[in-house]
Records
---
Amino acid sequence: MSTHIREDLTRNEKIQQAKRIVNENKYVLDAWAILIQDAQEKKITESRDFYELLITQFPTCGKFWKLYIEAEIKGRNYEKVEKLFQRCLIKVLNIDLWKCYLNYVRDTKGKLSSFREKMAQAYDFALEKVGMDVYSYTIWNDYVFFLKAVDAMGSFAENQKITAVRKVYQKGIVTPMTSIELLWKDYCTYEMSINPTLAKKIIEERSRDFMNAKRVSKEFETLVRTIDRNVPCVPPTSPQASEEIKQLAAWRKLITWEKSNPLKTEDPLIVTRRVVLAYEQCLLCLGYHADLWYEICAYLEQVSRTYSERGDTQLAKRFLDEASTLYERATQTYMRSNMLIHFAYADFEEQRLNVDKARAIYTRLLDVNEANLKDPTLAYIQAMRFERRADGIKAARAIFKRAREDTRTNHQIYVAAALMEYYCSKDNNIAFNIFNLGLKKYSQNLDYILAYIDYMTHLNEDHNARVLFERVLSPDNPISKQLQPVIWQEFLKFESQVGDFQSIKKVEKRRAALYSELNELEGRETLLLIDRYRFLNLLPCSNDELKLLGYKDMPQTNLSSMSTVLFNNSSTTNSAALLEQAARDRRAVLPRPDIRHMMPYRPTRNPLPGSHATPGGIFPLPDTALYLVKVLPPSRNFEGPFVIVDDLMERMTRLSIPDSKFFYERNLSQFNFSSQMNSRTESFRLHIFLMSC
């Protein structure tokens, strides 16, 4: 189904089409935008279910939370508003959402007797969470304005008020943000209004830290300028879209910059807080990137080790708890089915000796209703290893029993269980029994057979190994003959190491018979001979000779799909294959057109004014213009003054501007003071005339 919203549809038809698209693909943002616009025009009682669906699908998008909360505020459902804030504020560190929270507290709690205390607590809470955001200036400024407006009765209360205002100012002027110069200017004015003599000394002491923060603010603004912090979190596409790659690169650049300690502060807590804030805000938009989740948790572990080495166990435990909280948040949201993060989380808790919590992580990952893994084989293997470390080999066997009963698992669980018994319990018989049990189920699986063969050939039990080869190559085993050449290759390798010359010749003869049955023996005698003498990556011919013979070594991770050695039917076919390969090599170096900047064609009946219209459709704006349109406020917010373009152009055409030669042909010595004054007067009049237009 197409995910494109047709422009020629009516409003109701677009809404219905958007609903159909969202039902099939929940990550089409254009369809969600139409549904959001429709919900905003309805009462909250009619659209509440939609908003719940929206924030369930995009739980870290601050813009969507803010829309939901504003709709509830509009309906005066203040109890529901506060519950929504409790659900999102701590996890969604979006600056606009936090500003909405402060506005709500200020507008709805003003009549309470404890309003000042509650408002001050709200500001302190906001500054603790997002006070280091680059766009946090309005929060700092509003907090100062709020403190200044508090009535102070008596000298003691007045001194407390001055101290509180000064404290907020002094924290703000050393925090990189936009418009930090305005905050500094207000602070200087405030200090001068209290005690001009003392103010000069205080301002001089603080100016150095302010200049440092001002310098960092410029770099900060430049780094965040290319970041869209309101984009909803969607799974990465394959291949990744250019805009997604740009956003990821921009976030990584910002995080690396924060880790470099641009403020040059000696307080490691400030650096840690700034890095963690950058990671958390990045994960609001790029939560499907497992590497980002692991990086922030690993960073907090490193910080915790640093404080532990210094003897500060309280801070060390605090950062470990934060890492655990982030792991939990990841596994409950975007990483619900990601085994890598679950394994890292379980190892993290096991390292902290929280064995029960680590076991619960594996249990949740293996639960069909929780993670819903399509193939949980690797999860079972890691759970077995964990149980062996925690409770011994018997607990691991219980996991293996559970895995055998799970129809989603594959042959690797038998290999892992057998090798665990071999290496840990030192019992060859148990491992042998497990391999035999798996062979009954996977007798046609080449990967499993090769794993079993590899195990047997390393036990120095030649007789049992030959029995296994004969068993899997016997006519009674229903394995396909097209897969048997790889097994014969291993059989020949085994006999070349432990057998005599006659046994080697017998294996070669039987292998040749297989190729004869497959009608692939003609012209391959020499190629089959190469396999007798090869060892690892050493072959008895040079690379050029091997190419000429048509011998190609193709190492593959999945041996079921193809053989490790490819042959050609005849010398004629060999030559044709070489020519074809040479042609492919030549085509690979030919120049190809760059299609990255091609614009998608969007058919439309009535193109909007200003769009790039062509017969039958339109093309989207260029990237730069599209970014400008996104950051510009809506046209409904502009209330004037409006320029009448036609009148302006008419006045410009009637305007008589002297030729530039007039000023250069005259000798400079002929200009006197009066002529200079006249020229300046004419220029001033011309400037006034243009302004009046």
---
Amino acid sequence: MEVGRRSAMEYSNTKVGKPLKMKVKFVDDEKDVVKASDALPLPLYITNAVFFALFFSVVYFLLTSWREKIRTNTPLHIINLSEIVAILAFVASFIYLLGFFGIDFVQSLILHPSNDIWAADDDEEEIIIKEDARKVPCGQALDFSITKMAPIASPEPAPKVAPKVFEEKTMIETPPPTAEDEGIIKAVVAGTIPSYSLETKLGDCKRAASIRREALQRVTGKSLEGLPLEGFDYESILGQCCEMPVGYITIPVGIAGPLMLNGREFSVPMATTEGCLVASTNRGCKAINLSGGASSVLLKDGMTRAPVVRFNSAKRAAELKFFLEDPENYETISMVFNKSSRFGRLQTVKCAVAGKNLYIRFTCSTGDAMGMNMVSKGVQNVLDFLQNDFPDMDVIGISGNYCSDKKPAAVNWIEGRGKSVVCEAVIKGDIVTKVLKTNVAALVELNMLKNLTGSAIAGALGGFNAHASNIVSAVYLATGQDPAQNIESSHCITMMEAINDGKDLHVSVTMPSIEVGTVGGGTQLASQSACLNLLGVKGANREAPGTNARQLASVVAGSVLAGELSLMSAIAAGQLVKSHMKYNRSNKDVTAVASA
């Protein structure tokens, strides 16, 4: 089948924003085409089969014959008639196979295109293609209109054929603003309508985002092309996830695993733009699985909030401290705290005095929610109650940083915050060698000098690990957690020890502050909800509240264990730089990329 394609785009008349159209005509004309394979006495596929069989047969015969000569010390240059025939057959079949793999090149030499085709139209460029191989790049939603084109002129009358023509389609474009929207955009640009009030005034979150986006581009003079707008449910983030949206970003999600943890397999979703991360974690999961899996234990489960209050004297601050920490008052305080939620249950109250200021650290269970809002409501109830017995108490802030949220803090490292989890596995020596490409002694030594001694020299706070935050951040982004809480959630100490007379490796990670939830916040977004569903922890557990969130925390710890195991092995084997150069470097010419 021959195809003639000509461009129908006239640059002098084309305007920006109009759909582009291309004219293509497909003509079937195979009757008069002469192929190189027509000269063969047998059909091409039979001839190919014969020569393939002949080639491999004579190769096998010659190798067998020569092996026998070597075994009997017979000179190889002494050959008999059968070997001469085999050598001739080998040469003949080899020459044919060269021609077979180069058949397209041979036919291109025989089938010279007619000059009349190229001379059909001097005003437009003619491109002859064998078939329609038009492909749209990944992520590029372009479509071109295709219509019939006039038949190609030919000096000889061509036989009548039924042309094959695609349906005409138009490129999908974002429609320009309506007259009403244009007025709103100008008002936003002028400042007469606040950008943050568009959702309330319009009642349409998608339309508000589109108007805000256009106004932003006009004010800044910068294009937001490449930042998607379509295909997102803006109603779902109103009032809980993001204010004043102008689009959304896309982060690729990879799957590591399966991870065998506590007798169950988990496929771990990881959203990241760092090459090697998913592949490395996946290798760690493989090593764990082949060694029988990992096990985890939940040590604590409690979210914290610590307000700061001030008195006229340090004595009064100490009096409130003694009151709150007195076991006889715990029941009263817990009743006041617990009435704020069905799932929030007060666990402990610890206080710290600094002069006449008092920092009160409340810890409570929060079900399947991460629980920051839940614990804050309970704390507010207690502060209102304490105001009756301590009227001179001045509440400075609902959070006094003794919690401590989104900051590295020793109190979280020591006391824990959220879910405190320890996860361990025993990796067999042969798995360390075959899968991780290193040995037990090298891993134990590297862990001591890097994760323990090196981190101590650096003055690390909870950072006695190789790259726990890498895995924590990737899983958090994929499952809708608060990415800023990666700071304390990545507190981790990695331990490695040789066992069974140095043959096997015991590896563990202890993470005291994994802050996760399976309800609320970003967990209800479609993409993040799908990733939680993949792990089997989507939403709240109705039968045992808190089970899903605790399971998610265990998966995070297990994934960190896999990531630590693989990265430490790569460093011990000297493969870190090599792997990153292979998987974490772009092939694009960055010098050719022009900024908008």
---
Amino acid sequence: MSKLNAGAFEFVPGRAFVLPQKSQTPPSKPPLERPLQTEAPPPAPTITLNIGGSNSPAAPKPAPAPVTAPQSKPALPPSASASTTPSQSSSPAPPTNKVFSTERAKTDTTTIAKEVQAVADQEVLKDLFGDVKEHLNIVFIGHVDAGKSTLGGNLLYISGGVDKRTMEKIEKEAKEAGRETWYLSWALDSTPQERSKGKTVEVGRAYFETSTRRYTILDAPGHKTYVPSMISGAAQADVAILVISARKGEFETGFERGGQTREHVMLVKTAGVSKVVIVINKMDDPTVNWDKGRYTEIKDKLTPFVKSAGFNPKTDVTFIPVSAYTGQNLKDRVAKSICSWNDGPSFLEHMDHMPMVDRKVNAPLMMPVSEKYKDMGAIIVGKIESGHIRKGDSLTLMPNKSVVEVAAIYNEMEEEVPSAICGDNVRVRLRGVEDEDISPGFVLTSPKSPVRAVRQFEAQLAILEHKNIICAGYSAVMHVHTLSEEVTLPALLHYFDKATGRKSKKPPQFAKKGQKVVALIETTLPICVERFVDYPQLGRFTLRDEGRTIAIGKITRLHDDRVDEVTEGVAHVSVAA
């Protein structure tokens, strides 16, 4: 071993070799032999040397060392050679591997970060609530008399949301009023006006549970007069249930020009709903009688339109044939004797197993106010769009910047709960503010990162329908989350070229149907909005005028009002002499 060490010190590759001893005396000969060795590497000596051991790989590599400083550095050759050889032997490979591994690492790290975030969100939920059922907000939309309220009422009954005794009482009242067949819809249509006319006016709310999930029903009105109410309901929903009447003549009326089916689909997409379940109702009607041809005809007509509205027919849209009045295919699958061609799941079966929407549990709190009333203090109603809320939290009510305290939180069953999370529809009792100072469209938000309150912003607009051209100075009603506010367009900034999709440099003189433009939008009072890229739910809106949807848009830039606030503050300053 001592001779081997000595040999290693003198850069002798191994004891078995005779040449190294000759190379000790003439140092000039090893360099002559080395070119021969540099020609040899293609036969892959590195692989065999690596397998052999730490002494043998030192043979080809010490060549540069003796030329520069053969005796100053060899003090640590055994370890040095062992450490250098692996890196040197692997050095040819890393350039390609390195690029590949960093590219792969990027995708891996983002994937891992998402997984970690998801796990963290689940842990937060468990810490706050223990194991809770997932919660979905569903809005029923469609043409008037398609059966939306009947479907909602029957779902409440078969899932236990309304007990049998209450249903019998409602049925008796309906019979006395001569509206015997309307009794299911009366579970959601509670006001005398709605019950007498058989038309939903305000967004009805109800709650039910299945074995796997919790649901909040938002029953939107179908009549075109009450579209603003429908928009506020759609703004609180995660999934839209488009109810279509399969009865001969009724589908055609609702779907053709002037019917509400088309407008409702466009509005829910603008409101931020990503999934649509199209329920083809009244399949038990004598004119249909569970006919596959009628079902396929309706499906084929609806699919291209739903696709043009921005939904992917393969991933975002599901068709389910049902009978809301008889309850067939709602909870249990329809019998093969009645409908032999349908192999899909029932309505509740599909809802329980559809992918869950993303929830921003760890984001700052944002809760747009949809309703408010007075009951032992100011109470606000709304859906938590992001973050979570706990009893006793000190929060800010925008745009008035009122500092409020959460006195109590009530869930859908009117039970008091200690906390609520993103996606929940809750009632919150506030301390520190009067109900007269609150309006629908206000946002309850975190004081650390409050929602922006602005008077001016830039937005991309898609003009859907307008009989005239739209010029600077045009005014309309804007619906954004739960807020409806009159706005004006002081200036049109750019238009998008249909051929290239690029923005124009010069501002357009006007905008007409089918065009996309960037416009400056102004309100009289500050409103709570965010950029679409930051908070989609608070950054998308609809413009309506004369009872029609004129345009849909998304906010791209906010204009700050801080300068105005300073000037207003300075205006009230008085200097005493």
---
Amino acid sequence: MLLRGVRPDKRTIPRIITACRLTHCLPFGEQLHAHALKLGLSTDNYVITALIQMYGHLNSADAAKLLFDQSPRENSVAWTLMVKLYMAEDEPSLALHLFNQMVVDSRAKIDPVALGTALKACGRLKSLQEGRNVHEISKKCGLEFDLLVSNSLLKMYMDCGSTEEGRAVFDRMPSKDAISWTSMIGGYVKEGGFNEGLKLFRQMNFEGMKPDSLSIASILPACARVAAHKHGKEIHGYLLRNGTNSNITIQNAVMDMYVKSGSIEYASKIFDEFKERDVVSWTIITMGYSLHGQGIVGFELFQALEQTSSIEIDEPAYFSVLHACTTACMVDEGRFYFGCIRSPKVTTCILMVALLARAGLFEEARLFIEGRQIQHHTEVLRALLDGCRIHQNLMIGNQVIEKLRDLEPLNAENYVLLSNWYAGLAEWDMVNKTRETMKNLGLKPRKACSWIEFQNKVHVFETGDVSHPRSNEMTCKLQCLTSEIEVEEKERKICYSDFIFHDVEEEQECDPIRHSEMLAISFGIISTEAGTTIRVTKNHRVCSNCHNYAKIISQMLKREIILKDPNRFHHFKEGSCSCRDHW
């Protein structure tokens, strides 16, 4: 073009500069910049915008800023581009500062893209006040209900943890797209508002807005709970009916949902039907089997993954197989896979301590803890304490409890552990002294509670609870079961209690059949048809007495009982538990 004497104009130069940016050719772009100067086009808005974009992508935002500072201030596109470039370089503070300068400079027109970018910066900074300021600017510009701006406002409030303000924006929006619904649903789920998220998902369908893969991915975590397994099945059914189940990310999310809602069989079925699997698929199913007490199955699946040469095994995958080794108490295998992790995090080291402690290798666990210098992490000590409980190692257990109290002097559960320890040794003076200390410090231990879903309503029970409308029926059922359980206990010679290592105070002094998990199980028995699986969640580790009772009840009534505590799922079936009595 130049050789033929054709003079480039303000439309040609920007297009060639854009080509330089897309082909990552900075030297030629710099030559074009020189041509623009010679041709007197360097002050043209289109040329300046193209140059800023090129320098920002191929050099740096600072290089683009030098050019921007020399450009006309009324070029709103250039302002917006600079804000976006700072965001691309993960400099939200600089992006927001530049946007505020743009607002002050009345010559620049604020557009939806500039507002959206500024709101993204506020969300990344978690600055709710700055976000509110930008919201006010959008109102003054008459752009609050522009779809891009409204969606950006919604996401900003969600990112800043202000669900109520986000919902207020959502409710006022004159029109909504899938992004609007997904942001609001995801915000509720992220903050633990699972029921609100599910209601909104149903409303989204009712109003004719078809959920996309992102919408589905945002709602599935709300179903990844024992009490919401029915909702998870409904959403899975929706995916199958609408043919949107082929995405590997969605398939992994569905499988993870089934794992966490207590349906490992469904998760396994989905895994078997995968046409292709990635490392996330293998990690979810390996961890899933481990969480459901089937560590050996998880370990064997991981061995199958190792034979799949096309998949690179990452640290989360190694963590999942180490978890499986811990569940199955496979010490040698656990040592091997721990050694495969280049830079193990503290959480991974905790898992290794748990494996050694569960195997009764307390001296090796001690040396490991000291070698890794993790003795001041409370979760490490709690993992060690679990081993003491399993092997009834009273000496080390006492030392661990004392260390926990020293590290967390204001954690009520540590004092409960100590109180139960003294109670187990019949040292009642020390029990009273420990409780007095808790009272003086104003410490209140977390109450034990369990919950069960029935007819779309979650029923919550505390220890010794008599407030439920069907409390009398539940008590009668428990009393009937108790007499049979006592006979069974004598035959099995069961007379074991682990309260010496328990962190729930009120359960120590309460009849075991009045513990929250037993009340929830009783409610499930009287409320559902014979043979129906009972699904219960508890916020504390299940005690040994209730664990034994649940095993016997599952055999007596020919029912499967799935009980989830903070650490794992217990599948009670035909008189045994999936954890093999190690939990």
